């Protein structure tokens, strides 16, 4: 069977990736971008309800505070969802956890839909928190489910579809938010409720797919169920190699319960995996991408772009990131995770250093703002091609089955808290440092690049146990050869 037809036989697996993406990371992308469009309308609604209740308009500072909390509460809800991503998928399975998660999103959509009728901005706050919960749990379980259903040769490509759907969600949110579609004042409850549609779609379609095969075999010991699930998803009868790999992993965790967050934080046998998860992957919020989106509009204004055209340029930025992430999905299993992410961070750091200089001399010549626009698009392309995509795919490679749910809890916690902190503090940093705020992000990018290039082993095309053995050479490198070999054997048994 030639390579093209061999890949086409996995069409059901690709369909699963589509279903998981629509109700998983797509929701994150759309929630991040769609909230910008109805800002004025929601603040006007808050003022309207305030007058009805108290007979006087709300002060500007109070209205701004309520709006800021509506925006920021998504991160707090996502953190709560990420915390539960360690227990729900283990107790109920990956599939049932996502079905429960979709019910949460549908409730959130109904709260948004009826908030104007009920004259309650508190319903928007609660709905936004529930959307956050849906995003935090859904993102972790989406990647877990997909990674545990994929053959190792497609694992990088398929887990990276998580980033593609985030980019797709951002662009979709920007497009439906324009006033010609759902950006008009009378449409804002429907715009905020739009995430209910992907949730319903996933809830209905996911019922036709099997549970994650690795979960069935390693956690539940259901060999027959695993074989049926793999045969249905992969349309392949020769599964001995895959089942042998699962058996090795099952034997290495036999008698062990799923690891807790404390286990992951304190166990030496996963120390370098934890560092890899925390620094370049979960901490991706600190690479400066939000700063670029913030500065983009100032630079567009300086270049003479009309204010009413800004929204279309923001769609262009989102589309650039989406195209770059899609390209990354075709490169990741050829170039490898380490090179794409490590050199991606390095190029981002260098380009943002140049951007800091050109922003400092923007008034020197009329063409410099156009150079700044080109640099912003270049950095966003590199971000999509490397750090954005690989930060989704790499965590699925790092941990054995017993450790993975708690590792995703830690990853989600770092990601969402850092997003909350960047969102709350970034305005003050810009006021204090101006364009020099990029130097903070340059330092993070260079440090992450050095960490990845010099320390992290490549995971491309390797089984979970092989990856664990590679990391054990780092986790136990200071011990004597005999002790190291003993510890490697022990660590593989965890």
Account of the 3D structure:
- The protein has 494 residues and is mainly α.
- 77% of the residues lie in helices and 0% in strands.
- The two termini are 38 Å apart.
- The protein is built from 26 helices and no strands.
- The relative contact order is 0.13.
- Residues 480-494 have low confidence and may be disordered.
Quick overview of this protein structure:
With about 500 residues, the protein is mostly helical. Helix content is about 75%, strand content about 0%. It is built from 26 helices and no strands.
Please name the defining characteristics of this protein.
single chain, 494 residues, mainly alpha, 26 helices, globular
What's the SSE blueprint?
Elements: H1 3-8, H2 11-23, H3 25-34, H4 39-54, H5 60-84, H6 88-92, H7 94-118, H8 121-147, H9 152-176, H10 188-192, H11 196-206, H12 213-219, H13 223-234, H14 240-252, H15 261-266, H16 271-281, H17 289-302, H18 310-335, H19 337-360, H20 368-385, H21 387-393, H22 395-398, H23 404-433, H24 438-454, H25 464-475, H26 481-492
What is the strand tally?
Answer: 0
How many helices? 26
Portion of residues in helices? over 70%
Give the overall shape: globular
Structural class: mainly alpha
Terminal CA distance reads 38 Å
Average pLDDT works out at 85
- Strand fraction band? under 5%
- Mind summarizing the main beta sheet? none
Q: SSE string, helix = H, strand = E?
A: HHHHHHHHHHHHHHHHHHHHHHHHHH
Radius of gyration: 23 Å
Task: Outline the low-pLDDT stretches.
Answer: 480-494
